[in-house]
Amino acid sequence: MLFDTKFLAALLAISGVNASKIIKSRAAASNFTLYAYGTNITGLNVFYADGLAYIGNAAPSGASVASNITFSTTDPNSNSATWSVSSTDSAFSTAPALYIVPTNNTFTQVGFYTSSNSSSSLPTGGVTTGFELFGNALSYITSDGTLEQQFWAQATDATDTWKLMWNAGGEGGVTVDGYAITPVTVKTTAPLVISDSTSSTSK
User: Could you give the residue ranges of the DSSP H alpha helices within the chain?
Assistant: First the structure.
């Protein structure tokens, strides 16, 4: 079930509580994985490909650098801290920062910014801070303290591989550029794995 951020915002407005003051993460500050959950997306991991974020288990065709990643942040309780990523197989040596474009009426792929790389640049309106966990769900805290979870998955040409998108306006719709889209929640919780082992009972 998707988290209704508008409902939360209404509750916060009624109680007069700023979202950033009540969200306190107990997650580890380093080396954790993020997973996406949504329609037909049951805990697929978020991975890196050519500086952009994808969901799934297979790199998009044509990607020159693709890798599973772990996330780290200097302070999981502060939305002013950046979230950096590391390659699990040394596909890249830098620690680029997670970014989104939170400008209204945009639909932009989530990515990773390397400040030390002169050829790397943030897209217009991109930000590398504002992230915080609400429970185990990745959220963005706006400058006025509003909590947003506007992550979407956009299908690609590769089966079961999706672009991880941020839709600042929260607009509906079922396709973008001819590819199916669906809202997702991004969590630190890994999908449940059911053991294949069976137990026998005596008769």
Answer: 5-15, 19-22
Ordered alpha helix ranges (H), 4-131: 5-15, 19-22
Strand partners, 38: 41, 184
Domain 5-20+33-187 has CATH 2.80.10: yes
The alpha carbon dihedral of 23, 28, 33, 38 has a sign of negative
* Of 44, 69, 23, the residue nearest 162 (C-alpha): 44
150-174 pLDDT, tens digit each: 999 999 999 899 999 998 766 667 8
- Number of neighbouring beta carbons within 10 Å of residue 30: 13
Residues belonging to the chain: 203
Domain borders along the chain are 5-20+33-187
Q: CB neighbours of 31 closer than 8 A, spacing ≥ 6?
A: 70, 71, 72, 86
Question: What are the angstrom distances between the C-alpha of 203 and each of 132, 197, 199, 200?
Answer: 53, 19, 13, 9
Please write the tens of the pLDDT for every residue from 105-147: 889 999 999 887 666 789 999 999 999 999 899 999 999 999 9
- What token pair was written down for 38? 């949504």
